[in-house]
UniProtKB/TrEMBL annotation:
<feature type="transmembrane region" description="Helical">
    <location>
        <begin position="272"/>
        <end position="292"/>
    </location>
</feature>
<keyword id="KW-0812">Transmembrane</keyword>
<dbReference type="InterPro" id="IPR000276">
    <property type="entry name" value="GPCR_Rhodpsn"/>
</dbReference>
<feature type="transmembrane region" description="Helical">
    <location>
        <begin position="59"/>
        <end position="78"/>
    </location>
</feature>
<keyword id="KW-0297">G-protein coupled receptor</keyword>
<keyword id="KW-0716">Sensory transduction</keyword>
<keyword id="KW-0675">Receptor</keyword>
<feature type="transmembrane region" description="Helical">
    <location>
        <begin position="98"/>
        <end position="120"/>
    </location>
</feature>
<dbReference type="InterPro" id="IPR047132">
    <property type="entry name" value="Olfact_rcpt_6C-like"/>
</dbReference>
<feature type="transmembrane region" description="Helical">
    <location>
        <begin position="140"/>
        <end position="162"/>
    </location>
</feature>
<dbReference type="InterPro" id="IPR017452">
    <property type="entry name" value="GPCR_Rhodpsn_7TM"/>
</dbReference>
<keyword id="KW-1003">Cell membrane</keyword>
<feature type="transmembrane region" description="Helical">
    <location>
        <begin position="204"/>
        <end position="226"/>
    </location>
</feature>
<keyword id="KW-0807">Transducer</keyword>
<protein>
    <recommendedName>
        <fullName>Olfactory receptor</fullName>
    </recommendedName>
</protein>
<keyword id="KW-1133">Transmembrane helix</keyword>
<comment type="similarity">
    <text>Belongs to the G-protein coupled receptor 1 family.</text>
</comment>
Amino acid sequence: MLRTNQSIITEFILQGFPGSPQSQKYLFAPVLFMYLLTVVGNMLIIFIIVHDHRLHSPMYFFLGNFSFLEIWYVTTLSPKILANFLAKRRAICFSCCIAQAFSHFLLGATEFFLLAAMSLDRYTAICKPLHYGIIMSHRLCFKLAMGSWLGGFFTVIVQTIMLCQLPFCGPNLINHFYCDVTPLLSLACADTRLLEQIVLVGSALLLFSSFSFTAISYFFIISTILHIPSSSGRQKAFSTCAAHLTVVSIQYGTVMFMYVKPKANSSLEVNKVVAVLNTIITPLLNPFIYTLRNKDVKEALKRATNIKKYFTERHLPGVR
């Protein structure tokens, strides 16, 4: 698995999206618009969570972390994708490609740990409301957030080190619009079966363990909600979980399709289509999912847009 002196590849060429280079230039404007909207939307969520004291709760602490992660998640890919739309030669250096693959999978793995932490928060809020403030303390929330980032790091670091050790001696054309592991492994001049198995097992363990935790949490959440006597109480309880459950469904569905399947059944062209949903569309939808279905966030957004009232309430709380 060690790189040899015969490894002459110093850069890769990204094939990009299907179609001619000329036709791909027309994708620049919509992808740029979606990227900017994603960044601005998530930055706005972080801003109102930080500056509105009504949102200083565990639920919004995790949402702020999730929005911060989404900003970096799209930023690891979108600028290079946009540059390649206009470039005559879609080259990326070897170290840049490895760094992009590492960052992409680090943030992706961290995202699933954060989703599991958010499901624990919802379980505690609905199933143990009287002990919610004690259980979901600031210290525990900080530990869960840090644990999510560390968990993501340790999930991908071994795979990344092994990927760096592989010899690449040509060809250097990556059949994707970013440095994904599957097309990279197909270019290696060595037996990659061990690394493929590690990637498959690691992805499966991460996804199914976090998904199982989330599914069990929601089993008890739904069971508790169904025992709430009033219909308004049930509706309010469901509304607090709807946004998180929607994001969980989209994230797990796309990633399981892309990575947790045997190589023989994989299709790089199909993967590229699904990757667009996972890397561009889903991060764009998340801010809207959490704001449009969340009354507290919508009210905080209205207060934030009313500049005079916002600063009066924040700095002069005694003034009415």
